[in-house]
Amino acid sequence: MRFFHFKLLIPLITLFFLTTLNSCDQFNTSKNTKDHFDLTGKKYSFVSETTTVFWTGYKTTDKIPVKGHFTKLTITNSKPGNTAKDAIDGLEFSIPVSSLFSNEESRDTKLKDFFFKVMDQTELLSGKLQVQNDTLIKASLKMNGVTKTIPLTYFLSGQMLSIRGKMDILDWNAQTALASLHEQCEEKHTGNDGISKTWSEVDIAVESYLKVE
What is the pLDDT of residue 13? Predict the structure, then answer.
């Protein structure tokens, strides 16, 4: 009889130790998860060195894209944030139009001399970003002595922040500047239908690799 009780006791002791080990593992897993969370609680920063502002204009009635970017960007009022949203909210920026680049020198010269220089006080494009929610930014942009707000969408993939939006330059009273540019580009902006057209719509794209520390 005693031998029988002893045989029953062995599995009970084994079960006790297995249960104890399992409880310890669960505790350690929770601790490691918390430590991992703490390690990833870093700060995001928006920096000009890893940010590029792209633009796309359009020509002809077929709406053929003309693409380029600005090679210089100055960011002010930058501050680290717990999220990308915190890092970009309230950012102020300025972009010298002299840094415009489309990979075609003659086009760049026309855009600078017969478009931006026709405008009032437009050596710089300047403005401010204000985050509205997890996908929307409102950007105020000063151009031609006029400040207007445009909606932009944004999304984050890892540390890469992408911002997208559209603007109509006529909202900045730029009819004269657009007509001046069209006159210089009339032949190249003529499509197969014989119609020459320079669109006032411009697409904006910003790619920024956020600094994390």
Answer: 41
Same-domain pairing of 9 and 85: no
Long-range Cβ contact pairs of 176-185 (< 8 A, separation 24 or more): 176/118, 177/114, 177/115, 177/116, 177/118, 177/119, 177/144, 178/115, 180/114, 180/115, 180/118, 181/110, 181/111, 181/114, 181/115, 181/118, 183/114, 184/110, 184/114, 185/59, 185/107, 185/110
Residue 6 scores a pLDDT above 50: no
User: In whole angstroms, what separates CA 47 from the centre of its chain?
Assistant: 12
Question: Coil, strand or helix: which one is 200?
Answer: coil
- Beta bridge pairs of residue 68: 55
> CA-to-CA distance for 97 and 185, rounded, in angstroms?
19
pTM, entire model: 0.79
Residues 28 and 95 in one domain: no
Nearest to 43 by CA among 212, 206, 172, 168: 212
Q: What are phi and psi of 17, to 5 degrees?
A: -70, -40
- The b-or-e profile of 41-76 (16+ CB within 10 A means b, else e) is eeebbbebeebebebebbbbbeeeebebbbeebebe
> Do 127 and 188 share a structural domain?
yes
Could you tell me how far CA 16 lies from the centroid of its own chain? 56
> Of all helices (H) and strands (E), which one includes residue 178?
helix 175-185
What's the total number of domains in the chain? 2
For residues 52 and 189, give the distance between their C-alpha atoms in angstroms, rounded to a whole number.
27
